[in-house]
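ugh finaly. both done.
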Amino acid sequence: MRYIYPKKVPIYKFLFNANSLTKNPIPFHKKYFNECSDSFTVANSKKRKIFLTRDAGIAKQVLKQKHKKYIKSEIQTKFLSKYVGYGLLTSNGQLWLKQRRLIQPAFHKQKLEKLIEIISSTVKEELLKIKTNEFIDVYPIMNELAFNVVAKSLFSFSSDKETLRRLQFIIAELQDFIVKELRQPHKRWWLNLTGQVKKKLKLSKESRQLILNIINKRRESNETHDDLLDMLLAVTYEDDGSVMSDEQLIDEILILFVAGHETTANALTFATYLLANNTQYIAQIREESKEIQDTSLSIGSLAQLPVAKAVVDETMRLYPPAWITDRVAVEDDDLGKYQIEKGAIIGISFYEIHRDPRHWNNPNDFFPERFVGEEAKKHSKYYYPFGAGPRMCIGNNFAIYEMLLTLVNLLNNFDLESSDEEMYINPLVTLRPVNAKVKFKKLYE
């Protein structure tokens, strides 16, 4: 069979710009997408084709229409799993399908209803810590908030602060090191030789023991908390009625920590920064949130926040936390005008699809109105804030509720002032904001 790939970009061009690529590959992707009509090919050291694209049609085929022909690449199934285990994010095939079917019910809206009060109280507690009347970096605030929301939603209030703090430290260390390994493959021998890999694997082992201690403590207490841990302990496999092994349970909890807090922290940081620079939306969110201030919190009441939801949606369009994804073809396939071979790696840039002027008017502008009413339906096939298809993020509803609760509580307690300093992005495993500085002013002193 004759395989047809997009225009090839010589590998030396990437090697020549290796340092810049390590810091931020997005400008290079954009350059070659523009030169090569939305898709281009690079051959890696193993001679496997790497096919990068911003073609929304190809994205739809790979992630949805032909998803059975594609699996996740070694980036997640090998390098990530080495440190965080084989949970939903890092597994493939039957293991992934079995775990997805098992865990999905824990994230249904009626189940999440039980977590709304935990999320809300944690958000309010974290917002009290904000320093006022000086320009500060928003990311550390939102990172702390998002971590504690996940921790308390998982473990309720039964875990001591010292244990959670240690888990937070370890997860941050592992995330940063994973990026270093992925971005600098030519230095992996050095990372192994100097003992850095061994040190991080030791931290991973410690994190697993900390989580196991929490699980055992919960079992011994015979208490119920209506948190995610209770739900995960209770779910049973449909084929034989068994529960998850401790090893698998720890894998899933680690993945929830890793995938569930940094992505939300990033999105909340971007949203806060964008609102500080577009203050007209602050008054609108305050006005629509008045109706739910005096009512008991529920998922239904959060649905009455169209402007806040549009702000969240537009934030994740401009700055998708999961800015790129990859798949490997498990068989030969046709993708539009291309024919690819088994083993080819497909990289899909959500960042570029979300800023394509063919799909979005003024794509680099912050315009939440594009996600209100009928207008939102026009863009649905070009919008991938949580991925798409069967492997769409299982925690998408959880993340949306957390972000809405945070923004409403934030704006009902603070005014926001923008800084003259420029914000940057750091595309790691997730898209992280850098130097997103805002001044918070208390509304009621």
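ok and the 2nd:
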Amino acid sequence: MTPAAVLPGRIGPNAITRVAEALAARLGTSATWDLFDRAGLLRHLRTPPTQMVDEAEVRRLHAALREQLGAAEAADVARAAGRCTAHYLLAHRIPQAVQRVLRRLPAPLAARVLLKAITRNAWTFTGSGEFSATVAPWFGQAAAPPVQLHIRHNPLCQGLHSSAPACDYYAATFERLFQVLVHPATRVQEVACEACGDAECRFELRWHR
């Protein structure tokens, strides 16, 4: 039985704990407690989760960000939380020996190796959603992004309606991981989002060779 089958609809605790960190750093402790209270998640501030959490709680927290702060400031907090998540993964989940090897590889090869690991562990951040990745057959093609990441049935977009792509947390996490392990000039852009009515959330990753 796969991990995803064991834990349907659950997401790693970073999607909550790193938002708390980013909020406290940007707005202070009082505002953080108020927002978590409005989301009905104060218990996660009193006792930060260390195990997988219900994706509905993560969705509620990220929705509260937008409702209380507005789309622009919520996006800034989500991106900061995404970067914090990447730093946590680099410090605690990706072995240092593997990181050293990836940083020595040519970017196209490092990207493929990293994507295999991300795909294998996608159940930890997409919950009931579906993750996939596509890699350009020839990285020298200027018209095509080297890497595209796809999330279908994104649990953070359920019930969300936005005029602009809204998955800043995911985008920032992917961007920082690739900057450290693949190429420092990596930039991630979400070019389609289910919150905007698109069929999937799609992220393009580019860097200068």
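summary for the 2nd one i guess: The mean pLDDT is 92.
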